[in-house]
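input
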Amino acid sequence: MFDEIDETLRRLLIEEIPIRGNEIEIAFDQPRREWSARLNRPTLNIFLHDVRENAQLRQSYTQRQQPHPDRRQTALQRPEARVDLHYMITAWASEPDDEHRLLARTLLAFLRHREIPESFLPASLRRQPRPVALSVAQYDTTFNPPDLWGVMDNELRPCLNCMVTLTMDPHLPITVPLVRVRELRVEDMVVSSLRQQNQRLPDGAGGEIDLPEAEKRWTIGGRLQFTSLQNIHLSVLELERDVPVAADGTFVVGDLREGAYTLEVSRGSELPVRHLITVPSGDYDIQE
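output
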């Protein structure tokens, strides 16, 4: 992926500076003394010197749910990482004027784009969930040119710091069963506090307070597996409650106590069909 970003920057600069033929070389080598001694024509060096996650852009949620085609499973997708690629850009020529001119044109080319245009991206990067951000000549506490040049054993020279931010997804989706039943327990705060006191008592210590069971309410979900859902109507007879049905046949019924219920399905002028369900249970799908 990083090599594709390198090629993207090359294509952008060739188009924006512009560079005709082979009058200027674009290299991604480490600009060590041995490398610079071999140059025989004007060269732009774009050296990737640092890669790190952008913690400020990190997503706060832990997972994302996506419906699975069979409607019985869901794919849990952990958030992607936003990664910053830090480049040091230098110009190399026989005359300082030529170096400065080339560096200025490079700066202007990058300043014209806050995001890398999709036309410069390879096919694999065009599927990024977010645009590939581009910034240049910004204050950067991670970038210290004298230290970097000292490590490379070369002379200090003017440079641009450039940062490209892309999205990387290191996680594969995890397919798990779809949640069809949700339990809600309702209890007075005083009773809840007394229940916690009982739980803290040592086993066999005595002194426990008899408390009523917490009231349970259930929310269930299912699907009407019918060939046609046109003019379909669903209701819970015992509660005299109509239940909305989504375009794909899924439905949700909430605030149910434990027990048996009758779901009535009617469609246009057809005779209603009744289905008995038990709450809680594992399956609430209704087949035609």
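quick obs: The chain has a mean pLDDT of 84.
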